[in-house]
Structure formats: C-alpha cells, structure tokens
TrEMBL record:
It comes from the Bacteria. GO terms for cellular component: cytoplasm. GO terms for molecular function: inorganic diphosphate phosphatase activity; magnesium ion binding. This is Inorganic pyrophosphatase. InterPro entries: Pyrophosphatase_sf (IPR036649). It comes from Rhodococcus spongiicola. One of its GO terms (biological process) is phosphate-containing compound metabolic process.
C-alpha cells in the first residue's frame, strides 16, 4: 500500500467514525468576508483537531455516497499557517469550484490532491 493510499484509508476511517457538523451551508457568506459565498457545504468533524485546534475541516458536495474524493491543501501567508481540508461527496465540478473559492475568492495558495 502506498503512503497516499494509506493516507486516504485513514481519512475514510476518520470520516466514517466521526459526526460531521455543517456550520456554513452552500450559499452562506464567509464570516470574515461577507462578499465571499461558500460553493458547497463547509463544516468540520466533531471531536477532531485541525490546524486551528478545532475540528478537521470538510467541504461536502452533492454526490452523496461518493466518499472522500481528495483534499485541499492551503498555505495562508498572512496568517502564516497551512491547512488540509477533506473533500467529501464532491463532483468534479464542485472540486473545481472549491479550488476557485480557496484560490481566487479567499486568496489562499491552494492545491487539490485528488484521490486516485
């Protein structure tokens, strides 16, 4: 098993065992930038810890049952931090919209790692 396959398998288990709380539904405004609107549901995995010591971030799309399709990697030079966001149940179009949202709307250095 390659490292990337093992990584996604671990994420699968984490998502399967952990409740997802959606705190920013599709169409809602970003809390710091009200002109920026979320293209898909955004939330976090309860009782987990991400970079901000809050739950692991998740973008959830409309393709229910698809599972984890990738992760978004971000580097914010202003805040001097990096983040990994799980892409769950997303269509290819939704992944493209998430990448645009992160890079163009939030001005983050962002890259998508798609699951093979």
């Amino acid at each position: 098993m390659t490292n990337l396959v093992a990584y996604f398998a671990a994420l699968d288990e984490l998502v399967r065992k952990t409740p997802l709380r959606i705190d920013r539904p599709t169409g809602s405004a970003h809390p710091r930038f009200p002109e920026v609107v979320y293209p898909v549901d955004h939330g976090y995995l309860e009782e987990t810890a991400g970079r901000d010591r809050e739950g692991v971030d998740v973008f959830r799309g409309s393709a229910e049952g698809t599972g984890i399709v990738g992760v978004a990697l971000t580097a914010d030079l202003t805040k001097r931090d990096v983040d990994v966001v799980v892409l769950l149940d997303c269509t290819d179009d939704e992944v493209d919209r998430i990448e645009h949202f992160l890079h163009e709307r939030l001005r983050l250095n962002a890259a998508i790692v798609r699951r093979a």
